[in-house]
Write a structure and sequence with these properties.
Blueprint: H1 2-6, E1 8-14, E2 19-25, E3 32-35, E4 42-48, E5 53-55, E6 67-69, E7 76-78, E8 87-92, H2 98-105, H3 111-135, H4 139-161
Parallel strand pairs: 3-8
Antiparallel strand pairs: 1-2, 2-8, 3-4, 4-5, 6-7
The structure holds zinc ion (2 copies).
């Protein structure tokens, strides 16, 4: 059981129980059929390699579709033949062992807080380098630092959005 909880996890809100749940997955980039064992609510966790985003994107899951469409790039992806036969279970946070609940709730572990730290660090270092280059009148260097900083910030922002469903 503890090995199960050592896996990567993503938060999924159970709409049946109206409570915060977590699913523990071997590979975040594989498609998963997710069931809440408490109330039977069903959802999915799928991944678009083009957009590098994941989420509950299988539409009308009660009708057992065999494909899904990425909301960003509109690519249609087939689901594996045994998709619905191999569900992963959602654990309500209230039902998790205390130490696991502490881990999934820990702000240190959340993608958002790691992303925010990376963004402030990169932003700070990038701007410092840009200003230093400006003061040294190294215009090309300043431009390069500025563009690189922006690119890294965008990449972090994208990474942070991977598992938000917005
Ligand atoms: Zn539920
Ligand atoms: Zn996509």
């Amino acid at each position: 059981m503890s090995a199960e909880f050592d896996k990567d996890f993503i938060p999924i809100w159970c709409e049946g129980c109206n409570k915060q749940g977590e699913v523990f997955l071997d590979d975040l980039e594989q498609p998963y059929f997710v069931i809440c064992p408490k109330c039977g609510w069903e959802t999915s966790s799928v991944w678009c390699p083009k957009c590098q985003i994941g989420g509950e994107f299988v539409a009308s899951i009660e009708k057992r579709p065999m494909s899904w469409v990425c909301p960003e790039c509109q690519t249609e992806y087939p689901l594996p033949a045994l998709f619905y036969e191999q569900p992963v279970f959602l654990y309500l946070e209230d039902d998790l062992p205390d130490e696991v609940r502490a881990r999934v709730r820990s702000p240190v572990n959340s993608r958002y807080s790691i992303g925010m730290k990376l963004i402030s660090f990169t932003g700070f270092v990038g701007m410092m380098l840009t200003f230093i280059s400006l003061f040294a009148r190294k215009w090309e260097m300043a431009g390069l630092c500025f563009v690189l900083t922006l690119a890294i910030l965008l990449a972090i922002g994208r990474w942070m959005r991977k598992y938000s469903n917005e």
